[in-house]
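Protocol step 4 of 5: obtain the predicted structure for the target chain.
Materials: sequence only (see below). No template structures provided, no constraints applied. The aim of this step is simply to have a reference model before the mutagenesis design in step 5. Sequence pasted as it appears in the construct record:
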Amino acid sequence: MEKFVKLTGVAAPLPIKNVDTDMIIPKQFLKTIKRTGLGKHLFDEMRYTMRGEEVHDFVLNQPEYRNSCILISGENFGCGSSREHAPWALLDFGIRCVIAPSFADIFYNNCFKNGILPVVLPKKDVERLMHFAEIGKNSLLTVDLEQQNVTAPDGIVCNFDIDQFRKHCLINGLDDIAMTLEKADKIEVFEKKEKQITPWLF
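Step 4 output (structure tokens):
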């Protein structure tokens, strides 16, 4: 998993409440178990017409937001079904951070496991950042995980809270598998011991 320490980039404004996982990645794209290739289908039903043509008014189709790495949205982001494809699609598009007043619990947890930082800020702070995001590519935000803050173009700093274990995992690029492999030596010692005690299990 790619490390997340500090991120500076264009933020795409999506001022919608209750963005559910089916909006993020529609159900017809859930057949794959690969984490790549889903970015082109991110917000598919909002980004494209029935003919597959781009909807020019949708934020991620606008030239200044095509390379956004931060997404700012409304309350209860990621609600709905617990599909891990949702953070996969965001990450494959290039989104490394989502800022919102609140998140659905399962989506929030899945973000950390896939290298995305979900930032919870008070509504007034989200609205301030949303304003700057709407300016476009000349308005960059900086998200500093070590310092636990988001800096707006006007210099205003918004601080956020985060679980320290999750912070450690993101900064060091540790997903569940990587954390297990950190204890590979202890696992090997345990297996050797168990083979001697219960060889029939092996």
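Step 4 remarks: The two ends are 32 Å apart (CA to CA). The chain has one domain: 6-174.
Proceed to step 5.
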